[in-house]
Amino acid sequence: MLLGAVDLGSNSFRVEIGRVEGERIVTQSYWKETVRLAGGFDKSGALTPEIQARALAALARFNERLAGLPPERVRAVGTQAMRVATNAQDFLRKAQNVLGYPIDILSGHEEARLVFKGCAQTLPPSDKRRLVVDIGGASTEMIIGQGLDAKRYESYRIGCVNTSIRFFADGRITAKSLERATTACAAELEESMTTFGAGNYDEAYGSAGTFGAVSDICRALGWTDGVVRPEHLEKLRRMLLDMRDISEISFPGLKEDRREVIAGGIAVLTAVYRVLGIEEMRPASGALRVGLLYDLLGRVSNRDTRDVSIETLMEASRLDREQANRVANIAQAIYSTLSSEPDPEKVRYLRWAALLHECGMIISSSRYHRHGHYIVSNADMPGFSRLEQDRLAALVLAQRGTLKKVEDKLDTLISTETVLALRLAVIFAHARKDVALPVMDAKRTAEGIEMRMEEVWLNAHPLTDYLLREETEFWSKIGRHLSIQKF
């Protein structure tokens, strides 16, 4: 089995195809292009037409690299530059069309979790507490974990590209500009000291391009075997000052595509060492794209990280598990009636939403669907992208009441069939006890959805019958046709 990972980073775009061998993933092909997405913002915070064109050209080549892999075997993600771009959604539509696969925009926390997952898979097994620092083009992720699991993680909005643009835009490198850059980055990272500082970890690793570049320089200069210590950063600082200009930078072991952003990268890395009191850091391969591959392997092997997140949120919400499972089972049964060819992905989201549909009750039993929407939208849910979390939250919101609140999301973010299945499941389970569903069938017509339900059953359950008739009115108020007839 082949799996593909596409990392639309703020500095570089990368695609990796891995071959699954048991529990391992072996790299079959890898391709990287320097796009510098974080360097392509206009004054309004939008990605410029020029940077979009460069990015889309790279993605067209990536499409060829992926060579027709099925969508369920490919995961493509955007990071900090796409998180903050004011025209991110417009660019995302173009990018998905050119790449030929869906693209998720990761939250900073999810990016950090996946970075650690990727590094942990490529490092020797250990029970030690490991700190991993990933300096990207527009953000820096810090993670502490043990084994294969990240325990604490955070993302900070400083990287090699945005720092280089902010402090070295004219190309000149002076003692003042370098110190200003380092101090500003340290100020951004100051709050990380308590969680990630010395004493919280046993060994430290650096991943991604900036640390890899600095490690390569130290090795090329004969200073170390790749380990980076504070004195090495000080030597590099002095060498940078002697070079005076970005165009004059020439370090042994430094790749040409890193020259324009290495000054900003060294400023960020120096700030990390100062704030966290790091004595030495070793290189770790893997990072985000490998984390994506292993996370994808879990999804296709029924070891989905998202299932763990759902379970964790159910536990934290202290909800009625018996009712949650009851509604989930009914919703799945109704969805199979509504859809002649049930979509496995929609079934998965429907079940997750049903399991969490009462999580908002931890705040209040009144308007709990709205509280649930807020919780699911804002909770830290490892494994879920922003879009996936929004889809799940929208389903939780849609479970009851008027449909005006989700009208603009129907058949775009969430499907009509999954919303109707969840709403009907909540109705059938209103008594909070097991119920044998009536015989029913359904079909899509030009007007909408027509359902037929067993008359004897409905007559024996007058409250449910009333709620079902009320449900048809909710749909008519947004111009959707739902007919429920007795037979």
From TrEMBL:
Q: Which UniProt keywords apply?
A: Hydrolase
Occurrences of domain Ppx/GppA phosphatase N-terminal (ranges): 32-298
Tagged with keyword Metal-binding:
no
Name the GO terms of the biological process aspect.
polyphosphate catabolic process
Q: Where are the transmembrane segments?
A: none
Instruction: Give the highest taxon in the source lineage.
Output: Bacteria
Q: Give the GO molecular function terms.
A: exopolyphosphatase activity
Protein's UniProt keywords contain Hydrolase: yes
Q: Where in this chain does the record put each Ppx/GppA phosphatase C-terminal domain?
A: 306-471
| Protein's UniProt name | Ppx/GppA family phosphatase
The organism named in the record is Sutterella seckii
